[in-house]
């Protein structure tokens, strides 16, 4: 953990509550921490009038190395792809110099009333482009 503050990076130490009986972090905890890191980035988006709701369309995780209690972990969020109504986020989970996991989270923008897909707002699309990997 380098201590440099970036809005797309969240650094934590793995808490005991996330550890399974084998001493590794629960699989679901990787998603929980990745979503928290994504929320930390998302709060910096530009204000948009009549902003759509965003729903998870898909998520996937590739595990490379099991994290353990009190391991330092860095969650780095980038944008893998910006579609018409969707955005794909890539979250790298690292401990020290080792890659622990790669998580993909795909959101789709939907109309808040009808829950039908809508186009990403232009301001949001431009902001997301700054995080393309």
Automatic annotation (TrEMBL):
Pfam families: 4HBT_2 (PF13279)
Signal peptide: none
Cited InterPro entries: 4-hydroxybenzoyl-CoA_TE, HotDog_dom_sf
A Gene Ontology molecular function term of the record: fatty acyl-CoA hydrolase activity
Database matches in SUPFAM superfamilies: Thioesterase/thiol ester dehydrase-isomerase
PANTHER family: 4-HYDROXYBENZOYL-COA THIOESTERASE FAMILY MEMBER, LONG-CHAIN ACYL-COA THIOESTERASE FADM
Protein name: Uncharacterized protein
Organism annotation: Sinorhizobium sojae CCBAU 05684
């Amino acid at each position: 953990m380098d201590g440099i503050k970036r809005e797309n990076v969240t650094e934590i130490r793995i808490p005991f509550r996330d550890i399974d009986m084998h001493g590794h972090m629960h699989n679901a905890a990787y998603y929980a921490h990745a979503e928290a890191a994504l929320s930390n980035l998302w709060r910096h988006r530009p204000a948009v009038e009549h902003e759509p709701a965003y729903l998870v369309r898909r998520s996937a995780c590739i595990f490379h190395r099991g994290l353990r209690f009190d391991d330092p972990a860095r969650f780095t969020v980038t944008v893998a792809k910006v579609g018409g109504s969707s955005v794909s986020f890539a979250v790298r989970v690292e401990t020290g110099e080792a890659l622990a996991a790669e998580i993909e989270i795909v959101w789709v923008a939907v109309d808040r009333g009808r829950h039908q897909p809508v186009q990403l707002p232009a301001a949001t699309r431009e902001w997301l482009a700054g995080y393309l990997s």
